[in-house]
Design a protein that fits this description.
0% strand, mainly alpha
Length: 180
């Protein structure tokens, strides 16, 4: 595996894990794995072991960070990770707000998760009009009322991201340099 980018390593590790479980060759399914040693049984075994260590590092994170890393960077986006992430973000940022706003603020959390995932994986963001639809309001209402909340949620997600990626990066460094 290429162990340069932590985000790519998480993607490739989950791809290797999923494809190996299905009995498929991960090299044929869009992983960003270094193919220079393709065909070597030893390299396939090492890749699987490295993938296991990386997945283990992700799985050892607190639930909200694990959910973020898997939702944002796994080879296949599993929607099961989004609801616990939305609830955690809501509880951190908005739990003191009025009950009637809860559903819309949960939608703000979901829109922030999707927008930041898009930004990290595709280097672009959703338009405000799309985010307003996700939140369930007019674009003017979104800009006046919810955009600041979305930015706050994204700052919290960036904290999750930094904390989670740092721990996975430590495992990748061990794999690169033979420590541990």
């Amino acid at each position: 595996m290429k162990l340069g980018s932590v985000r790519d390593a998480i993607h490739d590790a989950t791809a290797i894990h999923l494809l190996n479980r299905a009995g498929l060759d991960p090299f044929k399914y869009g992983t960003r794995i270094d193919k220079s040693s393709f065909g070597s049984a030893n390299s396939i075994i090492v890749d699987a072991m490295e993938a296991g260590r990386i997945i283990g590092a992700v799985e050892s994170q607190p639930e909200h960070i694990r959910c973020w890393l898997m939702y944002a960077y796994a080879a296949v986006t599993d929607q099961k990770y989004k609801p616990p992430l939305q609830v955690r973000l809501f509880n951190i940022l908005f739990s003191s707000r009025a009950k009637r706003l809860k559903e819309r603020l949960l939608r703000v959390c979901g829109a922030a998760v999707d927008d930041l995932k898009m930004r990290y994986n595709n280097s672009r963001s959703f338009e405000d009009s799309y985010l307003a639809i996700q939140v369930g309001c007019a674009e003017s209402t979104y800009n006046e009322t919810y955009k600041k909340s979305l930015v706050g949620v994204q700052k919290e997600l960036q904290r999750f991201d930094s904390e989670g990626l740092a721990k996975v990066s430590d495992v990748i460094d061990e794999l690169k340099w033979g420590k541990g």
